[in-house]
């Protein structure tokens, strides 16, 4: 073991060796510090700045001190590590003598490794010295480059100035970009909110669609279940498993044959199969419908198919039922005949066997047999006739108009397989109450309110009552199988009759005669498939659209007819009425509503200005959707559209916009012309030339409007648009209606066409008809026109543009009742100073009542003048 002195001596030797090995670090410190000091002194001399030299000297000192301390720490660290390694070796030698030899060998190898490392360090030291010489060469190069850096410094200062300017610009741009980022962030937030709202609306729509589909399923099954149950109930009456005890003839039960049983069994199975298929289709409805429109289309399609299928099923079961009952009755009769014949044959055989002398008696028996056979055959014929009579509805026996109206209802309902048996007609306030027995209908399905609505919507029921009938007017007593309806007496509430009674105060007999005459006239028009004049406003409301085109000849009465339709639409829609008459004040000006084109100016150009204003209002409303819903309705009425078209190239575009989109803007557009087509209507000016048919007024655009043709123009339209049997049928109805109008006009001394060539005046209340083709109806229809002056003083809630005035000549206004001959021509309105007035009704004491044509207010001075007159 080594002593403590030997150990301390070895440690000192190791310290010395380590210090000697880290000597190159001291050399590196001195070289680096000297190089830094030389560069700083050279820079201070070149730039005449001793501060750089002092800074370099300080840097050299600091680097020397830092590197020296680093060297000492490295040395101490190495010594510490060596000491620790020595202690480990000693510990291992102390603990394991057996491994000493191996440790010596390991130390030898370590020594060789250290020697190799020492050699490598010496080589690195040589390389460091070579690098130091290279550094000195680099210093000289840097001194050469220092002179170049002086020139670069000035250029750098210029660049610094430019960079400062660019920095300020970048700051401004950065601020703008921040504002843009902020704006985009806000937009993103709004878009996210809109997206959330859209998703919420989508979920709501999906929920609404589900509710809609459930409602459709309930409606379909509510319609089908009673129909299906009714058919099943009929099938159960003819159940093959039991005898049909309720079918008898002459006290004898009728049994079903095998063929009849098979027919009834097969029909019932097909009925059950159809019911299962219908329910499967209804259950799969949600898979086929993705929107409300799809659901509604599915509902209509299925309802139509259900209706057709039910009609076929009902026809089939009626054939089976009639075949079964009638054939059964015939079989019972034939069975009775066969039994009788067998009895006679048996008896005759016995007579022949007994004696040949009974030939005479046998002839008597044979004659009796033939008579009985003929009687039986006649009974069969009588039974078939009796069946037909019993199956036919029982009608009212009288010949009064109410009995005829009731029989018309019975016949019309019979065409829909609904049997109404007349019971009684009772006079009630305002009309008559008709009562029918309906116990012979297999089910009450056809007597529901919705089914009666469909039946009453057809032409055959129009004109039966003063008001149009619907399912709500029919009251069904299901317990007693009675159906009641109240018919209003036609003609009792006619405005024309009311005016006549107010003016002349006729006797009650005269009123009844007038009512009866109006009723008979309306019935004659209705019998020819033409709506009566009493139904004019109702027909306009239900079957017209607020886009109307009146077509007539030069003296066909198109202007008053246009005004009549416009007043009906304005009365229904309220709001404003714009009359654009390009020829105001002419002898043919019979307009009683104020017009916007004054007399005495170029009416065509003024009409064009008002059409442009109407189109601008149309565009404003179209661009303000859905805000347009709260604006008042505007009815635009344009007369002589052909004359305006020659000077207004944009008219085609204007009319096309109104025909296609006026429903969305709450505006109506009514025109009157002499031809079936409006000549001169192109696609607009040269600015719209390249748009093609998008701005041209095409033939299909007229199909979006209700087209009204007077009696003379109707024949041309029928020959052009209808073919075959349909054209022939409409021509026959047109001829019959024209003949009826001519007959009535001749009987009452009225003229529907001018008779004086100098003054073209017609009777405003003459009988006239017109043909109407409307997009709301699948087929055209005829309508009787009321008096042209029906709406004089009757418009309520309708306004006119500021400055509009009645432009008809004074004598025409007097004929229309707008002015009275006793009105002083120089009288002015005390409210607005206007000098034209129109008559509007009467006071309670019989005095005439006048209002200003401009402001519509009552001029008190004029009333006093009228009172004196």
Describe the structure.
Helix 4 packs across helix 7, helix 5 packs antiparallel against helix 7 (292-354) and helix 19 (711-721) runs antiparallel to helix 20. The protein has a nine-stranded mixed β-sheet, sandwiched between helices. Strands 3-4-6-5 form a four-stranded antiparallel β-sheet, with helices on one face. The protein has a two-stranded antiparallel ribbon with strand order 1-2. It is an alpha/beta fold and 869 residues long. Among the domains are: 401-527, no CATH class; 530-818, Rossmann fold; 819-869, no CATH class. A hairpin with a 2-residue loop joins strand 1 and strand 2 (252-253). The termini are far apart. The protein has 22 helices and 17 strands. It is elongated and about 175 Å long. Helix content is 61%, strand content 10%. The longest helix is centred in the first third of the chain and has 138 residues, at 100-237.
